Amino acid sequence: MAFKVFISHSPADAEQVEQLHMLLSATGIESYVCSHDHQAGRSLAEKLQAAIDRSDAVIVILTEASAASTYVSQEIGWALKGNKLVIPLVDAQIASSLDLGMLQGVEQIRFDSADPVPAVAMVLERCQPDAGNQLQAHGQADWLQVVMLALLAAGLLYLAASGSTRSSI
Question: How far apart are the C-alpha atoms of 64 and 163, rounded to whole Å?
Answer without folding.
Answer: 25
